[in-house]
């Protein structure tokens, strides 16, 4: 009797594709269909070694290395949402693929007006429970960074607090 192909291999492949898509989209949301189309384009290999730096085309995708506890232990994440879930407050972002900012990333950089790099915006987007998400905006530089974060990660769990702080500062 011939053996039927195992469905588990198909399920595993589908799950792997879903995980890869989630890793590439990170904390972005897509108000503009053109941004979604751009993010759906192939971005090169995500299996880049740490020493080789980013490769491929836009958008730039980051991995996050976050402190765990008071010691030197760290945890690495591929999405901001995973960092939010674990409640990390100190992370660094390193590009793993892509060389040009997406439209959304460029919009965030424009709003930051030179007061934050793309990596700094990605780092800010990944953390929660800490500044700039929980503190008042008191300077032009902080307002620029807040405006950049508002565009970079509109799905952040503390976006309403950030928007409120920005509104109060602008009055």
If you had to describe this structure to a student in words, what would you say it looks like?
The protein is mainly alpha-helical and 171 residues long. Helices cover 46% and strands 11% of the residues. The protein contains seven helices and three strands, in the order H-H-E-E-H-E-H-H-H-H. The protein has helices at residues 7-25, 33-40, 80-86, 103-112, 118-126, 140-152, 159-170, and strands at 61-67, 74-77, 91-97. A three-stranded antiparallel sheet has the order 2-1-3. Helix 6 (140-152) packs antiparallel against helix 7 (159-170). The radius of gyration is 18 Å and the shape is globular. It starts with 6 loop residues before the first helix and ends with a helix. Mean pLDDT is 76; it is low at 2-52.
Describe the main β-sheet briefly: 3 strands, antiparallel
Global geometry: globular
Helix amount:
40-55%
- Residue fraction in strands: 5-15%
H/E order of the elements?
Answer: HHEEHEHHHH
Radius of gyration: 18 Å
Unreliable spans are: 2-52
> Quick check: average pLDDT?
76
Distance between the termini: 77 Å
Strand order in the largest sheet:
2-1-3
Number of strands: 3
Number of helices: 7
Structural class call reads mainly alpha
Features:
11% strand, 7 helices, mainly alpha, disordered N terminus, three-stranded antiparallel β-sheet
Secondary-structure map:
Layout: H1 7-25, H2 33-40, E1 61-67, E2 74-77, H3 80-86, E3 91-97, H4 103-112, H5 118-126, H6 140-152, H7 159-170
Antiparallel strand pairs: 1-2, 1-3
